[in-house]
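Incident review: delayed structure delivery

Summary: a single-chain prediction request sat in the queue longer than the usual turnaround. Root cause was a stuck worker, restarted by the on-call engineer. No data loss occurred. The affected request and its eventual output are reproduced below so the record is complete for anyone auditing the incident later.

Affected input:
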Amino acid sequence: MTHFFQFEKDFVDSLRCIPMQVRMKLDTCGVKLKLAHWHQFTQQERQTLVEMPATTAPESQVYRQYLQDLVTNYTGQPASELAIEPNPAWMEAATIPSDVQTKAQEFDVSLTLEQWEALTTAQRFALIKLTRPSHENRNFLPALKEFKII
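Output delivered after worker restart:
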């Protein structure tokens, strides 16, 4: 099942940007996919990356291989690899990452542990990603609203 967040609605039809669900799979399988790579893929290849599962270790390995084969096919070399976090912060419902709390406070929002625990894994992942300086984080506030934090 594919799930797009409301804050992604301006690009999900065309898949011109890498959606959060794919970003989560990338972190899970340890591949750093550049937007330039993503743009080289066909619409069907992008859709396949959205739909392919990557929740178990075997699924992640298949996903990683498919993705690396795509990147290699278009660029002649595989994408860079990322270290796979053994206990990623988005899986930890009992602790709010300080970066998320700091970013929320920029909007005068105090995120409670109860609110953090009520979020889905994908929602926690999105909030964490949207705090990263390398990520376009204009969607942090819309995500807070979508997730009913404010």
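Verification: The chain has a mean pLDDT of 94.
Action items: add queue-age alerting; document worker restart procedure.
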